[in-house]
Structure formats: structure tokens, C-alpha cells
């Protein structure tokens, strides 16, 4: 695990068009789990950035998050 959670550098295209407050909120949403040893993946970050951007409504965001969680459990 790296010492800095820099999701914007890893996937800058996912953060395009988002303001600094939104970008910070997205990163902070992943920080606690990251500190516990989980490495955020592109799909999870894309899901949240699309929700914040308004591409997905809450129901679609939750559906996608649930599908991603199920995939992780089945691995």
C-alpha cells in the first residue's frame, strides 16, 4: 500500500470536470477503507465520480456498488 491515496493521479479522466470540493469528497470517501488495507479500484472510483457528476442517480449508484461488491465476494 502506498503512503498517499492519490486517486486523481491514477485516474485523472474520472475526475475531469469535477470541482475541488467534489474531488476531495470522493477521495475522502475511500480513505478509511484504504487505511484499513483496501486498495480502491477503478470501477469503484468511476462509480462514485459518475454519481457525484450526476451521470447516475442514487438507485443506479447503489445497484452498481452492489454488483461490484458481489463480484469481489465471488473472487
In a nutshell, what does this entry contain?
This protein is mainly alpha-helical.
What does this entry look like structurally?
The protein is mainly α and 75 residues long. Helix content is 71%, strand content 0%. It has helices spanning 7-10, 12-15, 20-35, 42-53, 58-74. Helix 4 (42-53) packs antiparallel against helix 5 (58-74). The relative contact order is 0.14.
Secondary-structure topology with pairs:
Blueprint: H1 7-10, H2 12-15, H3 20-35, H4 42-53, H5 58-74
Distance between the termini: 20 Å
What is the number of helices?
5
Q: State the order of secondary-structure elements, H for helix, E for strand.
A: HHHHH
Low-confidence stretches: none
What is the share of helical residues?
over 70%
Average pLDDT rating: 92
Number of strands: 0
Largest sheet: none
Sum up the overall morphology in one term.
Answer: globular
Residue share in β-strands: under 5%
Question: Which features does this protein show?
Answer:
75 residues; mainly alpha; single chain; globular; 71% helix
